[in-house]
Amino acid sequence: VKPIILDVDTGVDDALAIAYAVRSPEIELLGLTTTFGNITVEEATRNSLVVLEKLGRSDVPVHEGSTRPLVRTKEAYPRHIHGEHGLGSATFSAPAKSKSPLGAVDFIIETVHSRKNEVTLVCVGPLTNLAHVVRRDPEIARLVGRVVIMGGAARRPGNVSEYAEANIFSDPEAADIVFRSGLPITLVGLDVTMQTLLPMSSLPAWREKDAELGGFFADMTEFYIRFYEDAYPGIGGCGLHDPLAIGVVVKPELVETEPMHLAVELAGEQLARTREVPGERPNVDVCVKVDASGFLAHFLGRVI
Ligand code: BDR
Ligand code: CA
User: Fold this and answer.
1) Which of 21, 158, 164, 223 is deepest in the core (most CB within 10 A)?
2) What is the rounded CA–CA span in Å between residue 16 and residue 220?
3) Residues lining ligand 1, CB < 6 A?
4) Whole-model pTM above 0.95?
């Protein structure tokens, strides 16, 4: 069983990743850490508590993290993608449980030190929390088991600009610190996540299985799929970005990786591009191929 900390900016696909992690016996979910990104950090924390409560896993602690990028100002939140409160058109009431008094950065540092070389960090939002961890405790790079990051686009266009993917774009300086840190990183970027699409046709089964919980997830996902279908006509579903990061932990054979040196562009038109630098020592294992149908079947088998 792999102990993981899941770092989230809980919008729709983050919520699906939480469900997938909770339903995967290969994983011991030590805690969630939250960041701004799809929504504010306070909303990410609330949404994470709501999703855990719906899944019957309020025992998993939620540690709140970064409110803003390291140096930039966050311009706007993509409420047209993840919905007004971040969970599509799902409805919910305030969670019964509160966040943990321990902040995200302290929780990550303490946990990694207490379980040396065991913990997998799965980061599926902007990399601000992890950059703070590395700055405060550079030793972490050799104490953590593995870091799986959803972010970037090595060999395909981005989703916020021709070059940039949303998580890297939300805090490019944080991504730069993380990529230079010596952490053992596997990058699950748009190269693979834009191939793992969840179609609208999978939603009725969810609602039928369990009107309450299935309806909650189907309502949020329907909103997200509609955005994808508007933004990319004919795509046939939403990208399962954050769930694929969990998929890579649970079933590594779903992807093929290639070691690369990736640098983060910090200025100009290509801001936040994760650019391959040939000839430099590799700093990231980049997922370049995915068994999309195998992943979709596994994901659906677990969450529905
Ligand atoms: C990533 O950006 C966020 O909107 C999603 O939750 C995902 O982590 C995809 O680019
Ligand atoms: Ca996310």
Assistant:
1) 21
2) 10
3) 11, 13-14, 38, 124-125, 150, 159, 165-167, 241-242
4) yes
